[in-house]
Each structure stands twice: as structure tokens, then as C-alpha cells.
Design goal:
Length: about 250
């Protein structure tokens, strides 16, 4: 029965993929295909630090965030990379955490500038869809990320949240191409791993992370990295979620 269910899910994902690609232009199809390519190497230091920065920011630990931003910039993250992670954070941890974290990043950047550090500023996002296009673009991106159209009783009960997710999170934030989808998912996984009471969302985003080309083994590399940076709770919750994901 489990094999049959798995096969049905695969078929549904394949059908959804066809729908997504048919609805998109050739250029958009190629962009989505690139975003979903499997990563064949271990997580880079930059990728690990993205998750760590998000974890500290999501819990409001400014001391830990300060240190993780320093380490991330030393590891090769650009100022734009860090800023984009912290802007995205508001969709998962709220505006207060995001605004506080961005304020801390400003302090870190200024302090490093005073010390003579030559941090790379990084790139800005490319052209964005118009407000009228965001729902269609977001629906396409969400379907590609998840592997199938996202539906369910919750979204029927609260259609506004469904529209906000499609239009803003996936039609606006995830369109900003100065971070790729793998990096955005690692930031989300880092934040959710550190937060309390969001186990189901963490599990869902681990599945999305695999769909965008990150393996379970690569995601598991974050566990010892979190432990080595005193993020014991994030490490424990991530390890538990990965274990459940593997068993499903």
C-alpha cells in the first residue's frame, strides 16, 4: 500500500510539473529546471551559515546572530545574501524578528567597515512581476517547489492565507533571484528548526528542500554544524524531523 501511495504521489508530481511548465514561458521553464537541479556536493560553508543566521534571527538571539553574521561574511556570504535571508525571515518568524535582525546586520556591516573589512555587497534581484502577475507566478512557483498543487481544508477554510502565500511568499519573495531556492529553503529550515511549535512546517520544508535538489544527507550536515555553534535545540529538532521524514 505504501508503494502504491508513493507511486500515486510521483504521478501527481509529474502531472503537476507538466502543468507548471505548460503554463510558463520557455525562459521561465528553464529557470525552474535550474532551481530544481540536484546538488551533487556537500553543503558549502556559505549554505550552512545561511541556516545558522536564520536560526539565531528567528529566536531573537542577537549575540548569536552577531557572531553568525560575522562568520557568514567571513565564509564568503555577501551583504546582500545576509540581508535577503533576514528579509525573508519575516514570512516565517514575523516582522519584529526580521526588523531586529536587519538592525543587527547594519551594526555588523558598519563595524566590519570600520575594521577595514572588504565585504562584497552582492547583487540586487532582477525584474519583478507586476502585482497583477504575482498570483499566477506564485502559484506556479509554489507548485514547482512542492512538486504538486497545494490544496487542503485549511486553505478552503481560510482562502486569504492561501492567496497571501501564493501572491506574496511565492510570487514576490521567492521570485527575488539574488538568492536561489536551495538557499531560501536552507534559511527556512534553519529558522523553523530553532523555533518551537512548528514541527509540521519544518517537516514540510524538509520535503520541499529535497524537491529543490538537496538530499537528506546534505540536510543532515546541518545537525553537527548547529551543535558546534551552540544551537542544540535546532540540532535536536532538525534531527527528529529528518528521522520522521525518512520513515514516511
Amino acid at each position: 500500500m505504501k508503494n502504491i501511495s508513493t507511486a500515486l504521489m510521483v504521478c501527481a508530481a509529474m502531472a503537476a510539473s507538466v502543468t507548471v511548465t505548460e503554463a510558463a514561458s520557455e525562459d521561465d521553464r528553464k529557470k525552474i529546471e535550474i532551481q530544481l537541479l540536484k546538488q551533487t556536493h556537500p553543503l558549502t560553508d556559505q549554505q550552512k551559515n545561511v541556516a545558522l543566521i536564520a536560526a539565531y534571527a528567528a529566536t531573537g538571539d542577537m549575540g548569536g546572530l552577531h557572531s553568525s553574521l560575522e562568520e557568514g561574511l567571513d565564509a564568503g556570504l555577501t551583504v546582500s545574501d545576509c540581508r535577503e535571508v533576514l528579509v525573508q525571515l519575516y514570512a516565517y518568524a514575523g516582522f519584529p524578528r526580521s526588523l531586529n535582525a536587519l538592525g543587527e546586520l547594519m551594526k555588523v556591516v558598519e563595524s566590519r567597515k570600520q575594521r577595514g573589512e572588504k565585504d562584497v555587497q552582492g547583487s540586487q534581484p532582477g525584474p519583478m512581476p507586476s502585482p497583477e502577475e504575482m498570483l499566477a507566478v506564485g502559484t506556479r512557483n509554489q507548485t514547482a517547489l512542492v512538486g504538486q498543487p497545494v490544496k487542503g481544508p485549511l486553505f478552503e477554510f481560510a482562502p486569504a492565507i492561501d492567496q497571501y502565500l501564493k501572491t506574496h511568499l511565492f510570487g514576490d519573495i521567492f521570485v527575488r533571484d539574488n538568492l536561489n531556492w536551495k538557499t531560501r529553503e536552507l534559511a527556512t529550515v534553519g529558522a523553523l528548526s530553532a523555533m518551537s511549535g512548528v514541527e509540521s512546517q519544518l517537516k514540510s520544508h524538509l520535503a520541499v528542500s529535497r524537491n529543490v535538489g538537496l538530499s537528506t544527507e546534505q540536510l543532515a550536515e546541518l545537525v553537527p554544524f548547529f551543535l558546534s555553534h551552540h544551537q542544540d535545540k535546532a540540532a535536536e529538532q532538525l534531527q527528529s524531523a529528518l528521522k520522521v521524514l525518512i520513515q514516511d
